[in-house]
Each structure stands twice: as structure tokens, then as C-alpha cells.
Amino acid sequence: MMRLFPIQLIFLCVIGLLSSCEPKVNRRYYPTGQLQYVDSLDRSGHVRSITLFRRDGTLESTSPLKNDSVHGIVKWYDEKGQLESTEVWDNGKKNGLVNEFYPNGVRKCLKVMRGNITVDTSNFYYPTGQFVRFPESSASCE
Description:
Layout: H1 6-21, E1 24-29, E2 35-41, E3 47-53, E4 59-66, E5 69-70, E6 72-77, E7 83-90, E8 93-101, E9 107-114, E10 117-125, E11 131-132
């Protein structure tokens, strides 16, 4: 039987503590074997974030969570992997700025949400990034 010295015991205990601090990760796959989502859990087992993927493997969204509710900046991506929009969430509700982007990465519109309700959509932009003072009636920031 191997005898451990005190410094070796301390080292093993520190390694054990550090490994328990690492976030746990769960992965779920589509029936085709393609990754569907990844979630990371904190030490108490609560989900900290969820990353969703489309069936073709492209990134769809990233969502931070707090106390099992969406909380923080959610990012949505188009089929080509370009950032499509960002949304500020607070305890499961859209509360704050929502930005939408053109495929070239330029901001399309900016709106303000309170409790999942749009309270202001006055900021629209051309694909060049120039502010639209009076948007056409067809302009929307969905």
C-alpha cells in the first residue's frame, strides 16, 4: 500500500476542489447525430447558459440564464452564422434594448422593450448605417 505524505494529500484535495468548480456541460443531439444544444450547469445544477444549433449545424442562439430564467444578452444568428439580433432579458422577460442587424453587420433598428412589450421603435437605419429620420411604413423591427 502506498503511503501519502501530507503535501500530497493537500495537492489531491486542491485538485478535487478545482475539478468540482468546473461547469458541467450537457449536450443533446438531433436523431441525425448533429448537435442540437449545449447547456452548462453551475455546481448546484442550475443551467447557466444554453446554446442552440440548427439541424445543419449552424449556430442559432446563445442565452444566459439566472435562476432558470433567461437573464442577460441573448444573441440570435442567421443561417450563415452572422449576428442577426441581440436582446436584453431580465428574469425571463425582454427588458431593455433589442438590436437587429443587416446581413452586412450594420444595425437595422433599435427598439426598447419593457416586460416583453415594445415601448419604442424610433431608431431605424439604412444598410449603409445612416439613420432613417422617417422610416417607410413598411419598416419594421420585429
